[in-house]
Specification:
Mean pLDDT of chain B: 83
Low-confidence stretches of chain A: 256-267, 514-528
CATH superfamily of the largest domain in chain A: MetI-like
Helix content of chain B: 40-55%
Largest interface: A-B, 71 and 69 residues
Distance between the termini of chain B: 70 Å
Radius of gyration of chain A: 24 Å
Low-confidence stretches of chain B: 13-28
Mean pLDDT of chain A: 79
Structural class of chain B: alpha/beta
Shape of chain B: globular
Helix content of chain A: over 70%
Oligomer: heterodimer
Number of strands of chain A: 0
Number of helices of chain A: 23
Number of helices of chain B: 11
CATH topology of the largest domain in chain A: MetI-like fold
Chain lengths: 528, 301
């Protein structure tokens, strides 16, 4: 027995009940004054030239790191994605086995958060801008590779087989048959990755790897709220601009022409895409030059610090069960919060335009603020611990999920909603049963994927204390305890791989359509 | 050639022309002194005001000096080990960690206050914690929510933890089974004042300046105990400064730092930034105690 599809999306919101019950217990209210100061400062950000200058400089570095990391991850991802696609291996060599080996190998770099990559690389090659770029490129590249190979393997193969039967060589047939349908999906997905890269670059900054994140954390820790808001407003502007630009390009380039009337559009799109990529290449070079990125610097390995003899007994003595347990609990709480709240807020705000705008504003802030900053803010009024960490992570992911939900809601289910409205249903019911019913499965499938992102991200809220593996990892890092670090990273990777497997199963289960009501939607895959 | 092809050729040529332009800049190889600091107090100001230090050193030494911002204690140590920073303002523990990881590193200078530095334990006034008469009194902190500063801070973590341990308070005795790590002294004061934690440990110098500036409100947060003294902050230089900048450079560098006086308006600004009257030489043997404590607590292996 499954409940009616539209109601599914609201199920995770049930987590609110225990949370609301817990909140009075963990809130101490001591810092409302500080929160008030923080909110008031939003209206009067510091405009001192020194502050604005240093924020702009930081923003430039962050944006540059994001752009370069994104470009590198795309290049890496496309190559590896093609190399791990079953269709490609099957067509070229007649055997698809190597594809799944490469796929399994790629799971490891993907399972480690970019922050960890950054901190590990910092140990190996020292503090240089290229570290942040590579830290983003490695896990993102492995992720893009997986999506590209999934997309490739899901494409219809009729054209490919026809070409092969006609005697066309393998590679040529692949490019001709699979290239054109793959391109719009890759373009649409890569736009989304660029937004992720901007968020990641900000986050890396929070941990000292350069850029605006550094400014944000320092100003927050010194309670210089007006200066903090200078950075936040500018970052918000850049993020919204980027999202608008990506959305616009996606609609222009990747949307299939609806009626096939604008045939000339195809040629124009092709030329535009080509011009854009040709402009992109030298501008990447320019950005790299501006940031002082030196790829050769990656080869100057410094060797690890002189480590004491590994003390595996002490490593084993760490409370592994409780560390892993609280990490998982943190993940579940944050995921349920994010997945459940987004549709709930949309439903509540639906009939009232200003309220809807407010919700969207809140989501934008959620996406914008790196979770460790939210966590530090929450500590002003809440006691440290797992719930506080979960709230911070949940808020961030709510912003991301909410936006995707809204975007998807705009493009599907409109007729059903209109029909329900015309039949006299209230606006909320019409939204729930009209739009959400077709969205429920792909949305939840995406939610399942998001929860394994959250598991990886749980490392970043380690600084609120008692959040499991994340907190322990930061402590071991500062002690330069190589043995503990190694064990922690391995456990993290194992947990993430397990989580990924579970969320994959959940997604498949959600996307299977037992009643044959339409083709399985791409949302789960394309949103990754 | 169709117009479209010509257009594309032109575009490609344009792009290729730009590529080498991006490659040239690394050519100049005049050595550059890169300085950094752990972000322990008003770090956002450090970020901006460190250009003063860079300018002053550059004037006195005649080499290019740049400030590299680092937000994280651990990152600062790694950056020093990997040679990304030439001269760093470290805390006691990070300084010892860095000099153990980079044998031959030179302890160049410290402030007049650093040979005998103090930490204070502070408490929120609503938590019922009273001033403590002697070290044994620290047991009152058991089952309270307690925060340190950064994981690697000497005055915000290492020494306070050491004194707590002597009094029989372990890390898992605090409420929630673990202490918090606020990240900096300012954050510790703010969090204890807000009541997020009942108590915390901070650097005495930061505590006093917060009281003076009004950032700390005596009605909400008070000092409950002052620790015995220990050595803290220092300027640490790379072992290879003389090879890179010429014979006698590290002595010149040390003399430059020691020469700063508040009679010079710019040097006065720098000294104010550091909260010092002036800088003095370092006796490396004093930091042996920090190393011992670091090993006991597990921060040095």
């Amino acid at each position: 027995m499954r409940p009616a599809a539209p109601l599914w999306v609201l199920l995770p919101a049930l987590v609110l009940l225990p949370l609301l019950a817990l909140l009075p217990g963990i809130s101490h209210g001591g810092g409302w004054e500080l929160v008030g100061e923080f909110a008031a400062a939003a209206l009067q950000p510091s405009l001192e030239p020194l502050v604005v200058g240093s924020v702009l400089g930081g923003l430039g570095v962050t944006a540059g790191i994001a752009l370069l990391g994104w470009a590198a991850s795309l290049a890496l991802g496309l190559v590896l994605g093609i190399a791990s696609s079953r269709v490609v291996w099957h067509t070229c060599c007649g055997n698809a086995a190597p594809a799944s080996w490469i796929r399994r190998l790629l799971a490891l770099p993907r399972s480690i958060h970019e922050l960890l990559w950054g901190l590990l690389l910092l140990q190996l090659v020292g503090l240089q801008p290229v570290v942040a770029v590579v830290a983003i490129a490695i896990p993102f590249g492995a992720l893009v590779a997986r999506v590209v190979s999934d997309l490739l393997d899901a494409l219809p193969t009729a054209n490919l087989e026809a070409l092969r039967c006609g005697g066309v060589a393998g590679p040529a047939a692949l490019v001709t048959a699979l290239g054109p349908p793959l391109l719009p999906q890759v373009i649409s997905y890569s736009g989304y990755r660029l937004e992720c890269a901007l968020r990641s670059a900000t986050m890396l900054g929070v941990f000292g790897l350069g850029g605006l994140g550094t400014e944000l954390r320092l100003t927050l820790q010194s309670l210089a709220f007006r200066e903090l808001w200078t950075g936040l407003w500018l970052l918000l502007a850049v993020m919204l601009l980027l999202e608008a630009l990506v959305g616009w390009l996606r609609r222009r380039w990747a949307m299939p022409a609806r009626l096939g009337l604008h045939r000339r559009g195809v040629g124009r799109q092709g030329r535009e895409i080509l011009v854009a990529s040709l402009v992109l290449l030298p501008s990447l070079g320019l950005v790299a030059w501006q940031l002082g990125i030196e790829p050769a610097g990656l080869l100057r390995w410094q060797g690890l610090p002189p480590l004491g003899p590994a003390d595996w007994g002490a490593v084993l003595a760490l409370p592994w069960a409780s560390l892993a347990g609280s990490t998982l609990l943190l993940t579940l709480l944050a995921a349920a919060l994010a997945v459940g709240l987004a549709p709930l807020m949309l439903l509540v705000a639906q009939p009232c335009r200003p309220l809807l705008a407010l919700v969207q504003g809140l989501w934008a802030l959620g996406r914008l603020w790196p979770p460790p900053l939210t966590a530090l803010l929450l500590l002003f009024v809440l006691q440290p611990g797992l719930v506080t960490g979960a709230l911070a992570l949940g808020f961030h992911n709510l912003g991301i999920l909410g936006r995707l939900l809204l975007e998807a809601a705009e493009t599907s289910g409109a007729p059903q909603q209109q029909a329900l409205l015309a039949a006299g249903a209230g606006p909320r019911l019409a939204l729930l049963y009209g739009r959400f019913s077709s969205l429920a499965r792909p949305y939840l499938a995406y939610g399942a994927y998001r929860s394994d992102v959250i598991l990886r991200e749980s490392v970043v809220v380690g600084l609120v204390g008692a959040t499991g593996l994340g907190s322990q990892l930061l402590e071991s890092l500062s002690s330069f305890a190589g043995d503990e670090l190694l064990a922690l990273v391995l456990v993290y990777a194992a947990l993430t791989l397990l989580g990924e497997d579970l969320s994959d199963r959940a997604r498949l289960w959600l996307l299977e359509t037992p009643h044959g009501d339409g083709p399985p939607q791409e949302a789960g895959g394309a949103w990754r | 050639m169709t117009s479209r092809k010509r257009f594309l050729t032109l575009l490609a040529g344009f792009c290729l022309a730009l590529v080498p332009a991006a490659q040239v800049q690394q050519a100049s190889s005049k050595p550059e002194l890169r300085i950094g600091a752990i972000p322990d107090q008003n770090p956002e100001k450090l970020n901006r005001l460190y250009s003063l230090v860079a300018n002053e050193l550059s004037q006195q030494l005649g080499v290019k000096v740049t400030y590299v911002p680092v937000t994280d204690y651990t990152a600062a140590v790694s950056a020093f080990r990997t040679g990304s920073l030439d001269l760093v303002w470290f805390g006691g523990l990070t300084g010892v960690q860095a000099s153990l990881q980079k044998p031959g590193a030179q302890m160049l200078a410290q402030r007049d206050v650093d040979a005998q530095f103090y930490s204070v334990f502070i408490a929120n006034t609503r938590g019922g914690l009273k001033p403590i008469q002697n070290q044994k009194g620290l047991v009152a902190l058991k089952n309270k929510r307690f925060t340190f500063g950064s994981e690697s801070s000497t005055s915000g973590r290492l020494m306070p933890q050491y004194f707590l341990r002597q009094a029989g308070v372990n890390l898992d005795d605090f409420a929630g089974g673990a202490p918090g790590f606020s990240g900096s002294h300012d954050a510790t004061i703010a969090l204890v004042q807000s009541g997020a934690y009942n108590a915390g440990a901070v650097n005495e110098q930061v505590w006093k300046s917060s009281l003076r500036s009004g950032k700390a409100n005596r009605a909400k947060v008070v000092q409950i105990w002052r620790t015995p003294s220990f050595p803290d902050y220092l300027w640490l230089g790379q072992p290879n400064l003389n090879q890179r900048f010429g014979k006698g450079f590290s002595t010149k560098l040390q003399k430059a730092i020691l020469s700063w006086r508040s009679s010079d308006p710019e040097q006065k600004q720098i000294l104010n930034l550091f909260g010092a009257q002036q800088f003095t030489t370092v006796n490396p043997a004093e930091y042996k105690k920090i190393e011992q404590v670091g090993r006991q607590i597990g921060k040095i292996r």
